[in-house]
Specification:
single chain, Rossmann fold, 6-stranded parallel beta sheet, globular, binds nicotinamide-adenine-dinucleotide, binds uridine-5'-diphosphate-glucuronic acid
């Protein structure tokens, strides 16, 4: 069997590498229109940082795993075509700010129809609005030249930073297909691929629409837990309760469970916000404004949490941060990844720069170029899609990027921890304190530091959801 995956990104690359590793009898080609991404996949410096990924790629590359820009050749030769292209939020036109932009998906589908000379199973790997398979089916069948296409939905549930673990031992694999003989046969074929390493009882088969919607629902539920605990964190600060103790007590209820209850400066990442907005749009289009508003609130609380953090910094520092130096520790949207898409660090840094602070940013996996790009890029505001706010060139000059936490904190008035990198737990905070301006402030957006220990050193500490 031959597999081709269109899109060599955070999902396509790791997913296909694991399929190649677990299925030595299958030839896997990962193709992309981005030549630089493909050449990075073929080099020693992979385009994404993901623990364990290098080893998997090294074991299979050039054996049964290939990365190529020859999209058409590999699509044409494949029996199974995964489509794992990006599906960002639309920034203009109908549904701007909410609807998913399916431009890349549609162009991939048209290309598949153009180059195919044999029957194919086309697998939606990207996260898409429910009913996308119907549109894709139309594009393929109306251009099929007699070729039979079966469409499956096989959403991906991996999380960045743990992608390889998640792919090796998924909680479940979800496959949706048509309930026709052809659809059922296609489901069995894809099931056969995963059955190389995933126990059969973990492979769930549903109809197409359930699979598509389950992906949006899962991300909405996960994000909703974070917004729920973040909303509680504000109440904890107002009342003297400690959010870690509250989460622990609440999570002990087996019906609720302990995971995904860490209060933070807000969730980031390329998907939670995008997928919830997409869900909101679908609800609105289906005449369900109450349901839409319910889910919209998850994002509103997330936005509130980020601005609350910035407001707390400014108000604690005598209502002015103008000219003050801040060490920003962590810029990625979570630990163990270099990904900065929708990272809360962008909003926090822009908030501080807006108040004329100076920033010295350190993240072990994010390059200076990436940080500068993120801070200068126009931020798309989902709630007010017309007003795009670029950062002024003078504000950008207030930013420096350094390669060491001690360098970042030297002479700083305040430290902001924005990503929960393990190394931030182990820093020598006495040394940091000694080299800072006094009073030395520390704002922990990820609850990684020992508040009591730092207060004993002399820091003024603000930690999300903890007594002040
Ligand atoms: P990404 O931006 O990292 O990768 C997408 C790749 O597709 C890019 O390299 C782009 O060049 C390529 N591409 C776009 N159009 C193409 C075309 N017509 N032909 C060939 N290549 C093309 O995106 P990602 O993070 O891998 O996400 C992909 C999809 O998976 C999205 O729908 C996302 O919602 C979903 N998803 C992402 C994650 C995650 O952790 N990042 C997890 C689960 C699901
Ligand atoms: C998330 C989901 O966890 C995956 O199942 C899904 O496949 C993926 O989105 C997707 O569709 O893209 P990811 O965004 O990579 O994965 O990472 P998460 O671990 O979910 O973290 C998302 C954000 O929430 C991060 O900023 C993280 O720091 C934050 N978070 C997470 C919290 O603030 N508190 C928590 O308790 C957990």
């Amino acid at each position: 069997m031959k597999i081709c995956c269109i899109g060599a990104g955070y999902v396509g690359g790791p997913t296909m590498a694991v399929i190649a590793l677990k299925c030595p009898d299958i030839q896997v080609a990962v193709v992309d229109i981005s030549a630089s991404r493909i050449s990075a996949w073929n080099s020693d410096q992979l385009p994404i940082f993901e623990p364990g990924l290098d080893e998997v790629v090294k074991q299979c590359r050039e054996k049964n795993l290939f990365f190529s820009t020859d999209v058409e050749k590999h699509v044409s030769a494949a029996d199974l075509v995964f489509v794992s292209v990006n599906t960002p939020t639309k920034t203009q036109g109908l549904g701007a700010g909410k609807a998913a932009d399916l431009t890349y998906w549609e162009s991939a589908a048209r290309m598949i129809a153009d180059v195919s000379k044999s029957d194919k199973i086309v697998v939606e790997k990207s996260t898409v609005p429910v009913k996308t398979a119907e549109a894709i089916e139309k594009i393929l069948t109306h251009n099929s030249k007699g070729i039979n296409f079966q469409i499956l939905s096989n959403p991906e549930f991996l999380a960045e930073g743990t992608a390889i673990e998640d792919l090796f031992a998924p909680d479940r694999v979800l496959i949706g297909g048509r309930e026709t003989p052809g659809g059922k046969k296609a489901i069995e074929t894809l099931k056969g691929v995963y059955a190389h390493w995933v126990p059969e009882e973990l492979i769930i088969c549903t109809n197409l629409w359930s699979a598509e919607l389950s992906k949006l629902a899962a991300n909405a539920f996960l994000a909703q837990r974070i917004s729920s605990v973040n909303a509680m964190s504000a109440l904890c600060e107002a009342t003297g309760a400690d959010v870690s103790q509250v989460s622990h007590a609440v999570g002990k209820d087996t019906r609720i469970g302990p995971k995904f209850l860490n209060a933070s400066v807000g969730f980031g990442g390329s998907c939670f916000q995008k997928d919830i907005l997409n869900l909101v749009y679908i609800c609105e289009c289906n005449g369900l404004p109450e349901v839409a508003n319910y889910w919209k609130q998850v994002i509103k609380v997330n936005d509130y949490q980020k601005s609350r953090f910035v407001n707390r910094i400014v108000s604690s520092m005598f209502n002015t941060v103008s000219g003050k130096k801040f060490a920003v520790l962590g810029f990625a949207f979570k630990k163990d990844t270099g990904d900065t898409r929708e990272t809360p660090a962008i909003d926090v840094c822009k908030g501080l720069l807006g108040d004329k602070a100076r920033l010295s940013i350190y993240d072990p996996q994010v390059s200076e170029d990436q940080i500068q790009r993120d801070l200068t890029m126009k931020k798309f505001d989902w709630d007010h899609p017309i007003h795009l706010q670029p950062l002024s060139p003078t504000a950008v000059k207030q930013v420096s990027v350094v390669w060491d936490a001690y360098e970042a904190t030297k002479d700083a008035h305040g430290v902001c921890i924005l990503t929960e990198w393990d190394e931030f737990k182990k820093l020598d905070y006495q040394k940091i304190y000694d080299n800072m301006q006094k009073p030395a402030f520390l704002f922990d957006g990820r609850n990684v530091v020992d508040v009591k220990k730092l207060r004993d050193i002399g820091f003024i500490v603000y930690s999300i959801g903890k007594p002040l």
